[in-house]
Amino acid sequence: MSSDASSTPKFIYKLVPSSAPVPDVLPEKLPVSELDQKSGFIHLSTAKQVPGTLKFFFTNDERVYVLRIPYDHVDKDIKWEDPKAEVCGPRGGEGLFPHLYNGLKLGKDEVDRVVVWENKGGWDDALKKAEDWLIY
Questions:
Q1: Which of 47, 85, 114, 119 fits a 20 to 30 Å CA distance from 127?
Q2: Do residues 8 and 98 touch, judged by C-beta distance below 8 A?
């Protein structure tokens, strides 16, 4: 479990760049990023970690697809780990991140909903509009 929470989250999230669009109908297994492939697991974020992940990894993206995953759908395959220093360096204050170890499977059985956020001079506007949707 995350070091900054007293309970498990209701949802965890996967951010996908617009260069890898998510289809309207989710398949059994979405293609995974080069980072996830290299790591051997799917990098995810809690609702509290999404703003930092978004601003750190997706600063120059015009839009992102945000996949909301009910935690209880994947809890048996989640490991809470520090971010890898070789990936993003220290990111203080964000606690442990949920990493999905299930053979790199993320698709219609795991994902509850997909939304698209637009980057309009920064991500703050998109994050403000998504406050009710980002649930810990």
A1: 85
A2: no
